[in-house]
Amino acid sequence: MSTDLSSTPAAAGGTIRIGDDLTVNRLGFGAMRLTGPGFWGDPADPDEAVRVVRRAVELGVNFIDTADAYGPFTSDRIIKKALHPYADDLVIATKVGLTRPGPDDWRPVGRPEYLRQQTELNLRHLGLETIPLLQLHRIDPAVPLEDQVGELAELRNEGKIRHIGLSEVTVEETEKARAVAPIVSVQNLYNVAARTSEDVLRHTERHGMVFIPWFPLAMGQLAAPGSPLEAVLRDSGATPAQLALAWLLRHSPALLPIPGTSSVGHLEENVGGASIRLSDDDYRTITAAC
After folding, report:
1. What does the alpha-carbon distance between residue 204 and residue 200 come to, in Å, rounded to a whole number?
2. What DSSP letter does each residue of 11-60 carry, written as one string?
3. Contact status, residue 78 vs residue 47, Cβ threshold 8 Å
4. Distance (Å, rounded) from C-alpha 274 to C-alpha 52?
5. What is the pLDDT of residues 45-96, one digit of tens each?
6. Separation between Cα atoms, residue 241 and residue 257, nearest integer Å
7. How many CB atoms lie within 10 A of CB 170?
8. Distances (CA, A) of 245 to 100, 180, 199, 238, 274
9. 70: annotated active-site residue
10. Nearest CA to 136 among 102, 93, 103?
């Protein structure tokens, strides 16, 4: 089964290629907010969470980013309930390497046997035979990076994952990982107001990798009345969230934003950002204001 996404709202942002075989619309969906307080347990409205995921696909989103640590496994189960059996062109990315002792508590665990166990659980909870993109959620400083990426490479060789990605890494760490196995993506904190990973972004551009910015909507005080962006917001008719996403889509062809929400209304607003086209002046104004 395949879904025609060529004329859907998310398609307005264009497409991007992950590895040598996966093409997706450049506006994805991040599933972390489908969980309860502290990203722990079930959401307040599980039915709305299912509606959000289904609506995302209806709007043309065909890249969904989740993780075993979200809930744990809450977002995985919601995605499966909402969308399984999956459309052929839907790419589900997930992550392993963080354990969750409780709400708002995230701890890296990179032992190879743990990464393998969590990969198997992701497969089960998502209802997948192969994970299209498996990302190392965090590097565990207590375990050699070569062992962590090496285990993901073994899982890829076994056909349990197709591609390997990284999360919250430096350029040096990315290169160390690439010496062990092909790396197709990096997922770091990045948005218009937080660009400390600019060097990593440019590195992914040079080497044909995708950069997946998490927390892509943050604009801080830039959206407040009297800010340098007040005129841009007024003239464009966009919301602050849409402007933040439009800036990312313009800033680099390697960026694949994954705004997340637990509300259908907010989802529709976010996806509308794919159709916003910033003028050169507006792009420079936003860039300089941050």
Report:
1. 6
2. GGG-EEEETTTEEEES--EE-GGGS-GGGBS--S-HHHHHHHHHHHHHTT
3. no
4. 17
5. 999 999 999 999 999 999 999 999 999 999 999 999 999 999 999 999 999 9
6. 12
7. 16
8. 30, 33, 20, 10, 7
9. yes
10. 93
